[in-house]
Amino acid sequence: MEEIKLISEEKDIRIDAWLAGQLEQFSRSYIQKLAADGNVFVNQSAVKSNYKLKTGDEIVLRVPEPEKLDVVPEKISLNVLYEDEDIIVIDKPKGMVVHPAVGNYSGTLVNALMDYCGESLSDINGVIRPGIVHRIDKDTSGLLVVAKNNAAHENLSDMLKEHDIKRTYIAVVEGIVREEAGKIDAPIGRHPVDRKKMAVNTKNGRHAVTHFKVLERFKGYSLVELQLETGRTHQIRVHLSYIGFPIVGDEVYGRRKQRFDLQGQALHAKALAFIHPTTGKQMEFHSPLPEYFERLLNELRENDRI
Fold it and tell me: Most CB contacts within 10 A, which of 61, 73, 172, 213?
Protein backbone atom coordinates (compact mmCIF):
# COMPACT_ATOMS: atom_id res chain seq x y z
CA MET A 1 0.00 0.00 0.00
CA GLU A 2 1.37 3.40 -1.02
CA GLU A 3 1.40 6.23 1.52
CA ILE A 4 1.27 9.86 0.41
CA LYS A 5 2.14 12.45 3.05
CA LEU A 6 1.21 16.13 2.82
CA ILE A 7 1.13 19.20 5.05
CA SER A 8 -1.85 21.53 4.75
CA GLU A 9 -1.17 25.19 4.14
CA GLU A 10 -4.90 25.89 3.96
CA LYS A 11 -7.74 26.03 6.46
CA ASP A 12 -11.53 25.65 6.43
CA ILE A 13 -11.45 23.60 3.20
CA ARG A 14 -12.90 20.10 2.94
CA ILE A 15 -10.11 17.58 2.84
CA ASP A 16 -11.54 15.70 -0.18
CA ALA A 17 -11.67 18.88 -2.27
CA TRP A 18 -8.16 19.93 -1.19
CA LEU A 19 -6.63 16.52 -1.90
CA ALA A 20 -8.27 16.36 -5.33
CA GLY A 21 -6.66 19.70 -6.14
CA GLN A 22 -3.24 18.62 -4.87
CA LEU A 23 -3.22 15.15 -6.43
CA GLU A 24 -4.22 15.29 -10.09
CA GLN A 25 -4.06 11.51 -10.45
CA PHE A 26 -7.02 11.01 -8.07
CA SER A 27 -10.61 12.15 -8.53
CA ARG A 28 -12.56 13.61 -5.64
CA SER A 29 -14.92 10.63 -5.65
CA TYR A 30 -11.96 8.23 -5.34
CA ILE A 31 -10.59 10.23 -2.40
CA GLN A 32 -14.03 10.09 -0.78
CA LYS A 33 -13.96 6.30 -1.19
CA LEU A 34 -10.51 6.15 0.44
CA ALA A 35 -11.83 8.21 3.35
CA ALA A 36 -14.89 5.96 3.70
CA ASP A 37 -12.56 2.96 3.83
CA GLY A 38 -10.50 4.55 6.60
CA ASN A 39 -7.47 5.41 4.46
CA VAL A 40 -7.30 9.18 5.01
CA PHE A 41 -5.57 10.35 8.20
CA VAL A 42 -5.05 13.76 9.74
CA ASN A 43 -2.58 14.01 12.60
CA GLN A 44 -2.60 10.18 12.83
CA SER A 45 -6.41 9.90 13.15
CA ALA A 46 -8.71 8.65 10.40
CA VAL A 47 -11.08 11.35 9.12
CA LYS A 48 -14.14 11.52 6.89
CA SER A 49 -14.16 13.30 3.54
CA ASN A 50 -15.95 16.35 4.99
CA TYR A 51 -13.17 17.10 7.50
CA LYS A 52 -12.26 20.80 7.42
CA LEU A 53 -8.52 21.37 7.23
CA LYS A 54 -6.47 23.42 9.65
CA THR A 55 -3.16 25.06 8.74
CA GLY A 56 -0.31 22.68 9.50
CA ASP A 57 -2.40 19.49 9.52
CA GLU A 58 -0.30 16.41 8.77
CA ILE A 59 -2.17 14.34 6.20
CA VAL A 60 -1.51 10.75 5.22
CA LEU A 61 -3.32 9.16 2.29
CA ARG A 62 -3.08 5.38 2.07
CA VAL A 63 -3.62 4.16 -1.48
CA PRO A 64 -4.20 0.41 -1.93
CA GLU A 65 -2.33 -1.34 -4.72
CA PRO A 66 -4.39 -1.14 -7.92
CA GLU A 67 -5.96 -4.29 -9.23
CA LYS A 68 -3.76 -5.62 -11.96
CA LEU A 69 -5.41 -5.50 -15.35
CA ASP A 70 -4.54 -7.90 -18.10
CA VAL A 71 -2.99 -5.42 -20.51
CA VAL A 72 -2.57 -7.31 -23.76
CA PRO A 73 0.20 -6.57 -26.30
CA GLU A 74 -1.29 -5.53 -29.65
CA LYS A 75 0.29 -5.25 -33.07
CA ILE A 76 -0.33 -1.57 -33.72
CA SER A 77 1.86 0.43 -36.07
CA LEU A 78 4.18 2.90 -34.30
CA ASN A 79 6.10 5.82 -35.78
CA VAL A 80 9.45 5.31 -34.02
CA LEU A 81 11.84 8.25 -34.51
CA TYR A 82 14.64 6.90 -32.33
CA GLU A 83 15.41 3.82 -30.26
CA ASP A 84 18.30 2.42 -28.24
CA GLU A 85 18.55 0.11 -25.23
CA ASP A 86 17.40 2.88 -22.84
CA ILE A 87 14.76 4.99 -24.58
CA ILE A 88 12.36 5.08 -27.49
CA VAL A 89 10.94 8.28 -29.03
CA ILE A 90 7.46 7.97 -30.54
CA ASP A 91 5.53 10.30 -32.82
CA LYS A 92 1.97 9.59 -31.60
CA PRO A 93 -0.97 10.04 -33.96
CA LYS A 94 -4.07 12.03 -33.09
CA GLY A 95 -6.75 9.78 -31.59
CA MET A 96 -4.44 7.33 -29.79
CA VAL A 97 -4.76 7.04 -26.00
CA VAL A 98 -1.37 6.78 -24.25
CA HIS A 99 -2.19 4.19 -21.58
CA PRO A 100 -5.16 1.96 -20.65
CA ALA A 101 -7.91 3.43 -18.48
CA VAL A 102 -11.64 3.03 -18.01
CA GLY A 103 -13.17 2.81 -21.47
CA ASN A 104 -9.81 2.37 -23.22
CA TYR A 105 -8.23 -0.97 -22.35
CA SER A 106 -7.03 -1.68 -25.89
CA GLY A 107 -5.66 0.21 -28.85
CA THR A 108 -3.44 2.38 -26.64
CA LEU A 109 0.20 3.32 -27.03
CA VAL A 110 1.03 1.00 -24.12
CA ASN A 111 -0.63 -1.95 -25.89
CA ALA A 112 1.47 -1.18 -28.95
CA LEU A 113 4.69 -0.72 -26.94
CA MET A 114 4.21 -4.02 -25.13
CA ASP A 115 4.14 -5.81 -28.46
CA TYR A 116 6.98 -3.76 -29.97
CA CYS A 117 9.33 -3.79 -26.96
CA GLY A 118 8.36 -7.02 -25.25
CA GLU A 119 9.82 -7.05 -21.72
CA SER A 120 12.05 -4.04 -22.43
CA LEU A 121 10.02 -1.35 -20.68
CA SER A 122 10.45 0.24 -17.26
CA ASP A 123 7.98 -0.90 -14.59
CA ILE A 124 8.15 2.15 -12.30
CA ASN A 125 4.63 3.26 -13.20
CA GLY A 126 3.16 -0.24 -12.86
CA VAL A 127 1.37 -2.56 -15.23
CA ILE A 128 -0.90 0.14 -16.65
CA ARG A 129 1.82 2.59 -17.68
CA PRO A 130 5.02 0.64 -18.40
CA GLY A 131 7.70 2.95 -19.78
CA ILE A 132 5.46 6.03 -19.72
CA VAL A 133 7.41 9.04 -18.42
CA HIS A 134 5.04 11.77 -19.63
CA ARG A 135 1.76 11.81 -21.52
CA ILE A 136 0.03 13.76 -24.23
CA ASP A 137 -3.74 13.79 -24.62
CA LYS A 138 -5.61 11.38 -26.88
CA ASP A 139 -6.38 14.07 -29.45
CA THR A 140 -2.97 15.75 -29.26
CA SER A 141 -0.51 14.45 -31.82
CA GLY A 142 3.25 14.44 -31.59
CA LEU A 143 6.32 13.46 -29.62
CA LEU A 144 6.92 11.66 -26.37
CA VAL A 145 9.85 9.70 -24.93
CA VAL A 146 9.40 6.25 -23.36
CA ALA A 147 11.81 4.61 -20.89
CA LYS A 148 12.96 1.04 -21.58
CA ASN A 149 14.46 0.48 -18.11
CA ASN A 150 14.03 1.87 -14.59
CA ALA A 151 17.33 3.77 -14.49
CA ALA A 152 16.43 5.70 -17.64
CA HIS A 153 12.91 6.28 -16.30
CA GLU A 154 14.16 7.74 -13.02
CA ASN A 155 16.62 10.04 -14.79
CA LEU A 156 14.00 11.27 -17.25
CA SER A 157 11.49 11.82 -14.43
CA ASP A 158 14.07 13.91 -12.55
CA MET A 159 14.65 15.98 -15.70
CA LEU A 160 10.91 16.60 -15.98
CA LYS A 161 10.73 17.77 -12.36
CA GLU A 162 13.68 20.12 -12.92
CA HIS A 163 12.18 21.40 -16.22
CA ASP A 164 15.19 20.07 -18.14
CA ILE A 165 13.13 18.44 -20.89
CA LYS A 166 12.18 21.01 -23.51
CA ARG A 167 8.71 20.34 -24.92
CA THR A 168 7.50 22.56 -27.76
CA TYR A 169 3.94 22.53 -29.12
CA ILE A 170 2.06 24.30 -31.87
CA ALA A 171 -1.64 25.16 -31.81
CA VAL A 172 -4.31 27.07 -33.68
CA VAL A 173 -6.40 29.13 -31.28
CA GLU A 174 -9.67 31.04 -31.50
CA GLY A 175 -9.14 34.80 -31.62
CA ILE A 176 -6.29 37.13 -32.60
CA VAL A 177 -3.51 37.15 -29.98
CA ARG A 178 -2.15 40.71 -30.01
CA GLU A 179 1.02 40.12 -27.99
CA GLU A 180 4.00 38.74 -29.89
CA ALA A 181 4.94 36.53 -26.93
CA GLY A 182 4.05 36.03 -23.30
CA LYS A 183 3.86 33.81 -20.25
CA ILE A 184 0.81 32.28 -18.60
CA ASP A 185 1.49 31.71 -14.91
CA ALA A 186 -1.66 30.33 -13.29
CA PRO A 187 -2.10 27.31 -10.98
CA ILE A 188 -4.05 24.33 -12.30
CA GLY A 189 -6.15 21.87 -10.32
CA ARG A 190 -9.39 19.96 -10.55
CA HIS A 191 -12.40 21.93 -11.73
CA PRO A 192 -14.45 22.79 -8.61
CA VAL A 193 -17.71 21.53 -10.18
CA ASP A 194 -16.86 19.23 -13.10
CA ARG A 195 -14.38 16.72 -11.69
CA LYS A 196 -13.56 15.37 -15.16
CA LYS A 197 -12.05 18.72 -16.11
CA MET A 198 -9.07 20.74 -14.96
CA ALA A 199 -9.18 24.49 -14.35
CA VAL A 200 -7.14 27.44 -13.19
CA ASN A 201 -7.60 27.05 -9.45
CA THR A 202 -5.94 29.68 -7.27
CA LYS A 203 -7.10 27.97 -4.07
CA ASN A 204 -6.12 24.33 -4.63
CA GLY A 205 -4.19 24.33 -7.90
CA ARG A 206 -0.55 23.44 -8.51
CA HIS A 207 2.05 25.80 -9.99
CA ALA A 208 1.78 25.86 -13.80
CA VAL A 209 3.61 27.98 -16.39
CA THR A 210 3.19 28.03 -20.18
CA HIS A 211 5.18 30.26 -22.57
CA PHE A 212 3.69 31.28 -25.92
CA LYS A 213 4.80 32.99 -29.13
CA VAL A 214 2.60 34.03 -32.06
CA LEU A 215 3.73 32.60 -35.41
CA GLU A 216 0.90 33.74 -37.69
CA ARG A 217 -2.43 35.60 -37.46
CA PHE A 218 -5.65 35.13 -39.41
CA LYS A 219 -9.16 36.63 -39.29
CA GLY A 220 -10.33 35.40 -35.91
CA TYR A 221 -7.55 32.86 -35.37
CA SER A 222 -3.87 32.66 -34.40
CA LEU A 223 -1.13 30.09 -34.87
CA VAL A 224 0.95 29.92 -31.70
CA GLU A 225 4.03 28.06 -30.49
CA LEU A 226 4.05 26.96 -26.86
CA GLN A 227 6.63 25.70 -24.40
CA LEU A 228 5.80 23.91 -21.18
CA GLU A 229 7.72 24.97 -18.10
CA THR A 230 5.59 22.61 -15.99
CA GLY A 231 3.48 19.63 -17.05
CA ARG A 232 0.05 19.65 -15.43
CA THR A 233 -2.85 17.66 -16.84
CA HIS A 234 -4.38 19.50 -19.85
CA GLN A 235 -2.09 22.45 -19.05
CA ILE A 236 -1.88 24.09 -22.49
CA ARG A 237 -5.59 23.65 -23.18
CA VAL A 238 -6.61 25.05 -19.79
CA HIS A 239 -4.17 27.98 -19.91
CA LEU A 240 -5.14 29.09 -23.42
CA SER A 241 -8.84 28.87 -22.58
CA TYR A 242 -8.21 30.83 -19.37
CA ILE A 243 -6.70 33.80 -21.25
CA GLY A 244 -9.55 33.78 -23.77
CA PHE A 245 -7.93 31.95 -26.69
CA PRO A 246 -9.15 28.32 -26.57
CA ILE A 247 -7.67 25.84 -29.02
CA VAL A 248 -9.63 25.26 -32.20
CA GLY A 249 -11.47 21.92 -32.00
CA ASP A 250 -11.22 21.61 -28.20
CA GLU A 251 -14.63 20.28 -27.23
CA VAL A 252 -13.85 20.33 -23.48
CA TYR A 253 -12.26 23.73 -22.92
CA GLY A 254 -13.15 25.45 -26.18
CA ARG A 255 -16.19 26.95 -27.84
CA ARG A 256 -19.40 24.98 -28.16
CA LYS A 257 -19.80 25.75 -31.84
CA GLN A 258 -16.78 24.66 -33.86
CA ARG A 259 -16.25 25.82 -37.42
CA PHE A 260 -13.87 23.03 -38.40
CA ASP A 261 -14.53 19.30 -38.19
CA LEU A 262 -11.31 18.24 -36.47
CA GLN A 263 -12.43 15.60 -33.94
CA GLY A 264 -10.31 17.10 -31.18
CA GLN A 265 -8.03 20.06 -30.55
CA ALA A 266 -5.52 21.43 -33.09
CA LEU A 267 -2.53 20.84 -30.82
CA HIS A 268 0.70 19.13 -31.89
CA ALA A 269 3.81 18.28 -29.84
CA LYS A 270 6.30 19.27 -32.51
CA ALA A 271 9.69 19.21 -30.74
CA LEU A 272 11.35 17.41 -27.86
CA ALA A 273 14.86 18.04 -26.48
CA PHE A 274 16.64 16.47 -23.53
CA ILE A 275 19.93 15.03 -22.29
CA HIS A 276 20.12 11.27 -22.89
CA PRO A 277 19.59 9.64 -19.45
CA THR A 278 22.55 7.28 -19.87
CA THR A 279 25.05 8.74 -22.34
CA GLY A 280 24.63 12.41 -21.42
CA LYS A 281 24.34 13.30 -25.11
CA GLN A 282 22.06 16.15 -26.16
CA MET A 283 19.04 14.72 -28.01
CA GLU A 284 16.58 16.73 -30.12
CA PHE A 285 13.62 15.50 -32.18
CA HIS A 286 11.13 17.20 -34.48
CA SER A 287 7.76 16.04 -35.77
CA PRO A 288 6.31 17.47 -39.01
CA LEU A 289 2.80 18.85 -38.85
CA PRO A 290 0.26 16.05 -39.41
CA GLU A 291 -2.12 16.14 -42.35
CA TYR A 292 -5.13 17.38 -40.34
CA PHE A 293 -3.09 20.35 -39.09
CA GLU A 294 -1.76 21.22 -42.54
CA ARG A 295 -5.31 21.13 -43.98
CA LEU A 296 -6.51 23.52 -41.28
CA LEU A 297 -3.66 25.96 -41.91
CA ASN A 298 -4.18 25.82 -45.68
CA GLU A 299 -7.86 26.66 -45.26
CA LEU A 300 -7.07 29.57 -42.95
CA ARG A 301 -4.39 30.90 -45.32
CA GLU A 302 -6.76 30.68 -48.28
CA ASN A 303 -9.92 32.06 -46.67
CA ASP A 304 -8.93 34.00 -43.55
CA ARG A 305 -5.68 35.75 -44.38
CA ILE A 306 -5.38 39.19 -42.80
Answer: 172
